[in-house]
Each structure stands twice: as C-alpha cells, then as structure tokens.
Amino acid sequence: MSTPTPTPSSTAPRTPPDRPADAPLSHGLKQRHLSMIALGGVIGAGLFVGSGAGIAAAGPSIVVAYTLSGLLVMLVMRMLGEMSAAYPSSGSFSAHAERAIGPWAGFTAGWSYWVLLCTAVGLEGIGAAKIVTGWLPGTPEWAWDALFMAVFCATNLAAVKNFGEFEFWFAALKVGAIVLFLVLGVLAVAGALPGTDSPGTSHLTDFLPHGSEGLVVGVLASLFAYGGLETVTIAAAESQDPVRGVASAVRTAMWRIALFYIGSMAVIVTLVPWDAKSLVEDGPYVAALEQLGIPGAAQVMNVVMLVALLSAMNANVYGSSRIAYSLVARGHGPKSLGRVSAGVPRTAVLTSSAFGFGCVVLSYWRPDNVFSWLLNMIGAVILVVWTLIAVSQLRLRARLNREAPDQLAVRMWAFPVLTWVAMAGMAAIFVLMLREPGTQVQLYATGVMTVVLAGVGYVRQRRAPRHPTRHSC
User: Fold this and answer.
1) Given CA atoms 261, 263, 267, 273 in this order, what sign does their dihedral have?
2) In this predicted model, what pLDDT tens digit does every residue of 72-90 receive, in sequence order?
3) Which residues are paired to 359 by β-bridges?
4) Buried b (16+ CB within 10 A) or exposed e, 135-148
C-alpha cells in the first residue's frame, strides 16, 4: 500500500501513512516498556557467554575491542534513531532502505533480517533448553524447546502489551544482575569487598598477549554481541509516542554500551587472568564471581543467562513478525502474512515461530550440514543491515533537510562526516572477516544469501507497475 511522497510544502506524517487502515497494529507499548526494552536489549546471552572467547583471544585489550565496536554501534544506532524518529515504522531499517534506496533494498534488508531473527529464536531455545536440562537431567531438550516456543508464540499472539510486560520484567532482571555484578566487581578492584584482596593491575600487564591479531579476533567477537539493539526502533512504532520513545532510546545508548559492555569487560579482565580456562569453560561472569568467592555463582549466572535467552526469544519472535508484517504491507511477501487481528499480525507470529522451531529440528536432525549452513548464512547479516542503515541515512538526511527539517527529532552527530566514518568502519570489518579463517565462511554464505535476495528484489521491482515513491510502513 502506498501514498505519494509529500512535497516540500506538505506536512509529512510521523506515523506510517500506508499502514492498512482496516487492520492497524495497536499502540499498546508504554514508555516504560520502551525504556526497559532499550536497557535490556543490549544485554544478551552473547555478553554472558560469548565474551569469554574474545577475552581468551585479545587478553585485557578486549576492553579496547569492545570500545571500538561499541563506538561503531553507537553511530549505527544514532543513524537508525534519526530515521526512525522521522519515519516511525514497524519495518524500521527495511522501510528506511526502501524509502532511501529502492524497493529491492527494503526487500533484501527485511527478509535477510527475518531469517536472522527466526534462526536466532531457534538457537536461543536450544541454549535455554540446555540450561534447564542441566538442572533436570533426563528431561528431553526438544520438549523444553517446544515449551519455550509455545509460550512466546502465545505471548506474541496476544496483545502487544503482553510482549512489553514480559520484556519489561526480563530486562529488569538482566539490568539488576549486571548492576550488582559491577558494584561487587568495583568494590573488589578497590579492595573494599570484605574477604577479598584487590588484584591491582597484576592481570593487565600482558595487555596484548596475541598481538594485533588477537585484538582483531576480539573486535569481531565483540561486534556481534551487540546484535538486538535494533528491536527498540521496531517496537517504537507500536508505542503511544514513537518519536519520544526512539529519541530516548538512542540518546541513552552511549552510556548503556559504556556501562554494560565496556564496564563489565574492564572489571572481568582486572579480576581474572586473561588466560584462565574458566573464562571460556564457565563464562567470564561466572569466573569473576567465583574469583570473588561468591557461593553458587555458577547457578546464579545460569539463571541470569536463562532469563537473557528467554528475553531474546521473546524479542526475536516479536521483531521477526513485525518485519514480516511490514514487508507484506509494502508488497514484498504473501498477503496472508500481513493479516492483523486485534492489532497483532498473528499469521506472521505463527510463521516466524514455526521457522524458529524448524531450526531446532534441524539442529537435531542435520546438525553438521543443513543447520551449520544456516548458521553460516546468518553470520554477517547484521553487518549487511548496518551498511544499508548508513547508506539510507546518508540519503534520507539530505532529503529531510530539504523537505521536512522539523521531523529531525534526533540528529546524527557531525553529519555527514561520522556517517562516512561508520561506513569506513564497516568496510574495515568486512576486510577483517575476509582475513580471518573462522569468519570467511560466514561472510561468503551471507554474501550469497544477500546477492540472491537483492536479485529477487530487483527483478520484483522491475516487474512491478510504476507508481509514485512509497512511504513504507
């Protein structure tokens, strides 16, 4: 569905004008939901577990790695926030890419991200099931997978406020756990924690144990831990005040990244020797808490990791369904996926959940070929999406400056200089991935999927009847 692009003299609406009028999405998310989604969205299972491998590769320089990748992510979030505040949309970056570059770009960004989110739902279900079966040995993992999938499918089939409430409390638990960890860690480093001697800087002397190559591996490992920040711009379209929600989330992104990611890494590498096997085997947070002599640290962090995984499952079922809904509303998918009932795209929720559970089945049935191929295919999708975000912002900002400057509630810093800096950073990441044997296959597989989707999108664009430039929902 579409409407003509507004002329400079017209007033551009702040909500998507081509959202189906007879079955719109609801606006059931409150500001407190968005605020907590923005806070908790940066805390995923990758931070609790995956960061251990990064520390093992980079040593104490992992703090530099997280700082570099964090700066890039902050720029991406600022660009996405600028566009999402100006054009609130459940399609987020996919709708922005279509508006700025063309329908083929929106098609490519949207469907590749949909595959990423659905596959991630399956992975998170597998991880959550492994934790629970560790507590309840003998129970089948697939049954827990199915239970988690059913719960979050049902949650997302109901009103969007249910999703918001789940994420609010999940995020509150994650944020509380991280803040408590940081308080304990800082006290221990300062020598103010009873029964604990401060290690001082003794664990930081070998700052680059594996040289620049180790730092590169650390940067790549840290970069993909930031995935999920985009969810708040998708959710904002269903809030009572989309512009305020996006603006608030983006403006607080800097301190959230600095505190939760960079702060955590600094505490961990100060407390625990970078070459400790427990960093990889048990996870960096468990290793740090055990170093402090906190009883039951492993089980406490298992609970936190379970919450993080369940939170990610909930958010990804939500995000994938909204991306699919937006794609269909813009003519990029089967109309049945766009059916909305009681403000919820229920067919899209069911389809996304089924795809996610299909990934779980593949992990048991064909783990060494089909499932591993699927994992490689989504390995670099987030970088492709970030690149399209940068290109879209570069083009849309010029258009907004000319046609509707009043819609710039959030502005990219030092435009266009920092946009180009971000694009250069992403190009450098692609080059680094090509150089690293462990990421080459992911880059190639993602490249093939992206080229195929772009080709299909371009053919569809050429065959579609000509119409005025669309405002995407």
Assistant:
1) positive
2) 989 999 999 999 989 988 8
3) none
4) eeeeeebbebbbeb
Q: What is the pLDDT of residue 220?
A: 85
Contact call for residues 206 and 340 (beta carbons, < 8 A): no
Helix (H, G, I), strand (E, B) or coil at 362: helix
Instruction: State the amino acid at position 351 in one-letter form.
Output: T
Chain-centroid distance, C-alpha 164 = 17
How does DSSP assign 39-95, residue by residue?
HHTT--HIIIIIHHHHHHHHGGGHHHHHHHHHHHHHHHHHHHHHHHHHS--TTHHHH
User: What is the rounded CA–CA span in Å between residue 309 and residue 292?
Assistant: 25
Angle between helices 62-86 and 92-100 (to 10 degrees): 70
Q: Which two tokens mark 297?
A: 């640290």
Cα 449 from chain centre: 19
Check pLDDT > 50 for residue 157: yes
Amino acid at 171: A
d(C-alpha 49, C-alpha 301), whole Å? 10
> What domains appear along the chain, each with residue ranges and CATH number?
31-458 (1.20.1740.10)
Spell out the alpha helix ranges (H) of 139-236.
Answer: 141-157, 160-189, 211-223, 231-235
**Tens-place pLDDT, residues 193-221:** 888 888 888 888 888 888 888 898 888 88
Using CA atoms, how far apart are residues 87 and 330, in angstroms rounded to an integer? 15
Residue 173 has pLDDT above 80, yes or no: yes
* CA–CA separation, 439 and 217 (whole Å): 10
C-alpha to C-alpha distance for 164 and 237, rounded to whole angstroms: 13
3 state DSSP class of 248? helix
What is the maximal distance between C-alpha atoms in the chain? Answer: 73
Residue whose C-alpha is closest to residue 298's, from 279, 280, 285: 285
Distance CA 375, CA 234 (A): 24
Q: Name the DSSP class of 136.
A: S
What is the CA 342 to chain-centroid distance, rounded? 27
8-state DSSP, 29: B
- Collapsed DSSP state (helix, strand, coil) of residue 14: coil
Residues with Cβ within 8 Å of 404's Cβ and at least 6 positions away in sequence, in order, are 6, 8, 11, 12, 86
